[in-house]
Design goal:
The structure holds two protein chains of two kinds.
Chain A lengths: L1 E9 L4 E9 L6 H11 L19 E4 L2 E4 L14 E4 L6 E3 L2 E2 L2 H9 L19 H10 L7 H5 L1 H4 L9 H12 L9 H5 L12 H5 L6 H17 L2 H14 L1
Parallel strand pairs in A: 1-5
Antiparallel strand pairs in A: 1-2, 3-4, 3-5, 6-7
Helix pairs in contact in A: 3-6, 6-9
Chain B lengths: L4 E10 L3 H12 L4 E4 L16 E2 L11 H11 L6 H20 L14 E2 L9 E2 L5 H13 L5 E3 L2 E9 L2 E9 L5 E11 L20 H9 L3 E2 L4 E8 L13 H4 L3 E3 L23 H8 L14 H13 L9 E4 L10 H8 L1 H11 L8 E10 L2 E3 L12 E3 L4 E2 L10 H23 L7 H16 L6 H15 L3 E2 L1 H18 L12 H25 L8 E2 L12 E7 L5 E7 L5 H9 L2
Parallel strand pairs in B: 1-2, 1-9, 2-6, 9-16, 15-17, 18-19
Antiparallel strand pairs in B: 3-5, 4-5, 7-8, 8-9, 10-15, 10-20, 11-14, 12-13, 13-14, 20-21
Classes of the chains: A alpha+beta, B alpha/beta.
């Protein structure tokens, strides 16, 4: 059968939807249709992809208005009697067609304090960790950096607060570091200040679009918010810290 | 001469998968300025798709393991045409490279006593693969990436290198373009490391992404370095076969490591039927022993599903050819059967193989905890590649290094699962270390602007043809040819036919036409990639023709047995003065007695 895809074509200056009809077969995903259109009808149609199996997070786009990995979106899930719209992520500037400039994400990550382990536990320089103590960190480390959570987050998408808020992806990155059993670094002060965790008002849109089903809000952002509160807004905490300082003298 | 943007680095690394990143970290730690060029965004290279684990004789799960057993396993798996020194270094250094990842933040699955857990994999005597569920590659690349970006490495994302620049015989940089705007760039460097990965895109059914067009292989060859072992292309036994759009996507060997079994359409576990002589003593007598092995019983031997990939692939092809395949032209891989053996099997499968569960559920409507998967061989890896010095990873061209899949030697005729990620780490580090040393000992070379101008003209030629060929169509025809004529089962007649066709494709590639402009234009990128794809396709075919025997991944229907005269030689290819591809056989370096003894002790 033939289906129609309305694909956004253009660059930073101008653009619009163009219709492409293409033959679809059982089992196809949106990315298959886009690649097929590229090979036969629009050789210069720009899109990113790599693994085609939901592991690399390259082919992020908005399919019928919803942020998705094109490689994991089956055509059988979509109403094909209507055209399928495929457009670039809206939170990031367009480079061309479905390709956006996601370089901001790489700059943000570079500013986050890196992993700093405690001294090794064993004389051979290795550590001991129990599986149940790392389950949560492993959940966060499933992140494939597709940036769909950044795309859907209204703080970034609607309010364009890229300078004040690092977005769900990097809150999860900080959470993975902060909850790493070996890590000794403290990132709570910048979470509150430069990383803007307070701007997140827990609408959980990020969790909904995460292709890895990471519980971004419940397991990552909320516990981090609690740590910020404990550190900066808890009178008992202030008292305790003051006491510790005194004792340390 | 047009104005090209120019960058200068002490060490330029081409490719940002495991090997490239590890090389960049090492070179940068040595105090030189490092530039890293990659075709995709950082963190998207093929390493991210590696699933099963990193092979290293940590002996955390079975204390009998050590580097000697790992070395012997690697040599046996490679049918003894491996570069012994690389196999030795690899086995000795892999444990440190894994522990180092933990120090950089990697979070591996744990043993009960809190150490790095290791799993069984094909051809490894003991449970040896450090892993994180079935997403080990993601853990590895993210760890290296996050560690690397804090070291001050200059990363040039979405850039493609078109040619290496030379000053006499020495390599002094690279010329390429930025994919985003299509602008040309010159990268001057005192040393260059190739870490470009594989060649899977030369085949129709492959686990590799669009990136794997043999760039490092072809760049090195064109510059005058040698390629070895190009006939040895690994067809991974288990790729998805249905639906058609996912054909070739990898199904990790970890499924079999966790107890998965292969069945034909009659429900017969066919892998017990033909066990190779050199593995007989290592293989289970019956199904029960195989299962006990997967459960960690130390007196049990491996099930035949965990024999080497070359062998398993051939058995699957045999079943399909003889009419015992599954409905979509594969065989069945079943992990759901373990529910007969353990309570909570479904939960166990989801925990140990989460991305496989996800992949089949979403792409094929199959619940692997309930139903068998349909699988068949897929082009996965090339053992062959750029010939390097085993210790320093330098090619025969001064200043040019290679590491990872695009370099060759460690794997011989067949690679064991898990040895790739460890190879990337061990030899990535070595390449970075010695490239930095070379850079400290040498000045920048002279860059010849005439070479650059002609490379730029050649790269733009496809824009000037209005009615030429569609580059995607040429690529597709080449992929069909390699799949059908130089695939798992090879014959002289078919490969001669392939060579003729490759010649035609070269002519067609010169007529490829591109529409649109230079900004992020995949049609243009595809046209440019054709050159490398054609070079390596020719190299694979010529090497496969000259090795008139069957060994490891190379199976010749017209020479179905191993031949003594090929047992101690490598095929070496280089570019002759008249631009033709020369193939010669060269004896392997003699293995020292202590290593020979290790192999004997582990027979």
């Amino acid at each position: 059968m033939t289906a129609t895809f309305k694909i956004w074509r253009g660059d930073a200056k101008e653009g619009g939807f163009r219709d492409y009809a293409t033959e679809v077969a059982e089992g196809m995903v949106v990315l298959d249709a886009v690649i097929q259109i590229q090979a036969a009808q629009a050789r210069d149609l720009a899109c990113r992809w790599n693994c085609k199996a939901g592991k690399c997070g390259s082919c992020s786009a908005e399919v019928n208005g919803i942020p998705k990995l094109m490689c994991m979106t089956r055509l059988s899930e979509l109403p094909l009697e209507k055209p399928v719209t495929v457009e670039p992520m809206k939170t990031f500037p367009v480079i061309k067609d479905l390709v956006t400039d996601v370089s901001w994400n790489f700059r943000v990550k570079k500013k986050i304090k890196p992993f700093k382990p405690r001294l090794p536990d064993a004389p051979d320089g290795t550590w001991r960790m129990q599986q149940e103590d790392i389950d949560r960190v492993q959940e966060f480390r499933k992140c494939i950096e597709c940036f769909l959570c950044q795309d859907v987050c209204h703080v970034l998408r609607d309010h364009q607060m890229h300078e004040k808020f690092i977005g769900p992806r990097f809150l999860i990155h900080v959470a993975a570091l902060e909850m790493h059993p070996l890590d000794t670094e403290d990132r709570i002060e910048e979470l509150r200040s430069t990383q803007g965790i307070g701007y997140c008002n827990i609408t959980k849109c990020c969790t909904k679009v995460c292709p890895e089903s990471i519980q971004i809000t419940d397991n990552g952002i909320i516990p981090l918010k609690e740590r910020v509160v404990d550190e900066f807004y808890d009178p008992l905490g202030w008292f305790w810290k003051g006491l510790k300082k005194l004792l340390n003298r | 001469m047009p104005d090209y943007e120019t960058f200068e680095h002490d060490v330029l690394i081409i490719g940002a998968g495991g090997a490239g990143l590890r090389a960049a970290i090492e070179a940068s730690a040595a105090g030189v300025r490092v530039g890293l060029v990659c075709k995709s965004l950082l963190g998207k290279a093929h390493t991210v798709m590696a699933e099963g684990g990193i092979a290293a004789a940590l002996a955390n799960v079975d204390e009998r393991d050590n580097w000697k057993v790992h070395f012997a396993d690697t040599m046996r798996g490679g049918q003894y045409v491996n570069q012994w020194r690389m196999a030795e270094l690899h086995a000795k250094e892999a444990p440190d490279r894994v522990r180092e990842l933990e120090a950089w933040g990697a979070v591996f699955d744990r043993t009960k006593d809190g150490r790095i857990l290791q799993r069984h994999f094909g051809g490894h005597k003991y449970p040896r693969l450090a892993h994180v569920g079935d997403r080990t590659g993601l853990e590895m690349i993210r760890t290296l990436q996050d560690h690397g970006v804090h070291q001050g490495i200059d990363v040039h994302m979405e850039h493609t290198v078109l040619s290496l620049l030379k000053d006499g015989s020495r390599v002094v940089g690279a010329f390429g373009y930025e994919r985003e705007r299509g602008r040309f760039k010159i990268f001057g460097a005192k040393a260059v490391v190739l870490a470009t990965g594989g060649i899977g895109r030369a085949y129709k059914i492959t686990s590799n992404s669009w990136e794997y067009t043999g760039d490092g292989h072809a760049l090195a060859y064109e510059a005058g370095a040698e390629l070895i072992d190009m006939e040895f292309v690994q067809f991974h036994p288990t790729g998805m076969v249905w639906p058609p759009s996912v054909m070739g996507i990898l199904v990790t060997e970890g499924v079999r490591g966790e107890g998965g079994i292969l069945l034909n359409k009659d429900g017969k576990r066919f892998m017990f039927e033909a066990i190779p002589e050199n593995y007989r003593a290592h293989t289970a007598d019956d199904e029960e022993e195989g299962w006990r092995y997967c459960q960690g019983h130390k007196d049990a031997r491996r099930p035949p599903e965990l024999l080497t990939r070359d062998h398993v692939s051939r058995c699957i092809v045999r079943e399909i050819k003889e009419g015992r395949g599954s409905p979509h032209g594969g065989v069945y891989l079943d992990i759901s059967w373990i529910k007969q053996k353990m309570p909570n099997a479904a939960e166990h499968i989801k925990r140990k193989l989460p991305s496989m569960y996800h992949q089949f559920k979403q792409l094929a409507d199959i619940d692997i905890t309930e139903q068998p998967m349909e699988v068949g061989p897929t082009t996965h890896y090339i053992m062959g590649g750029v010939r390097v010095d085993p210790d320093t990873q330098m090619t025969r061209l001064p200043g040019l290094f290679a590491a990872g899949e695009c370099a060759a030697g460690i794997n011989g005729a067949n690679r064991l699962g898990g040895n790739s990620l460890s190879d990337l780490l061990v030899f990535g580090k070595r390449a970075g270390e010695y490239a930095a040393k070379f850079a400290r000992e040498n000045q920048h070379g002279q860059i010849n602007t005439n070479d650059i101008d002609s490379a730029a003209r050649e790269a733009l030629a496809s824009f000037e043809r209005s009615n030429g060929e569609n580059p995607y169509a040429i690529q597709k025809d080449l992929q069909e040819t390699m799949q059908n004529l130089v695939g798992i089962v090879r014959t002289e007649t078919e490969m001669r036919e392939a060579l003729e066709k490759i010649g035609n494709f070269k002519t067609r590639a010169k007529k490829a036409a591109v529409t649109g402009n230079r900004e992020y234009n995949p049609g243009w990128h595809t046209a440019l990639d054709l050159k490398n794809l054609l070079t390596i396709s020719e190299a694979i075919t010529r090497a496969a023709l000259d090795r008139k025997e069957s060994r490891g991944a190379q199976f010749r229907e017209d020479y179905p047995d191993k031949e003594e005269r090929f047992s101690k030689v490598n095929t070496i290819m280089s570019k002759a003065a008249d631009d033709s591809m020369q193939v010669r056989l060269e004896p392997l370096p003699e293995m020292p007695d202590d290593l020979k003894q290790i192999i004997e002790e582990n027979r």
